[in-house]
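Sample intake sheet
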Amino acid sequence: MEQGQVARFALFSDVPGDKLSEIERLCDVVEFKPRDVIFNQGEQAEALYGVLSGAVELSLLFTDKFTKTDIQYEDSVEVKLEVTKKPIVFETVVPGEILGWSVLVSPNQLTATAQCAELTQVFALPAVKFKAILDTYPALGYTIMAKMAQIISRRLHSLTARLIEAWGEAFGVDTM
């Protein structure tokens, strides 16, 4: 990984140079093709990712259950429970932004699926090693977590807005 790439991310903007170099040494650069999945909702978070180039869509898997009735003859009715699953994209992560914040928040379970929208290059910062650095330097850990809280808050607002929009579409509601 080229030196200084991590410094371009807001999450690391207040990290002193020596500690930033230590973090950069832990990062691997990984390339993904369009439609490749970086991680799935519900999996354990193994790494923090930063988008270097390309774009990654964050989505939730929406599960819809409904009954389907099939009337074959007047006295023969078959009722089945149908289940459909559909991803709802709520945000697109672009260069300079991170994903996989769950690495730092217990129970470390990923809250969304990350799928590449185009050819994408990311850095991957292993969770265990990153946490070890933050444990070693508590002041740095505080700085990182304060910035991480801003990211989580923004994503929560984005997710909430998209779910309200999807709910309105599903139930034909024009205004709320």
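Comment: The chain has a mean pLDDT of 89. The chain is about 30% helix and 35% strand.
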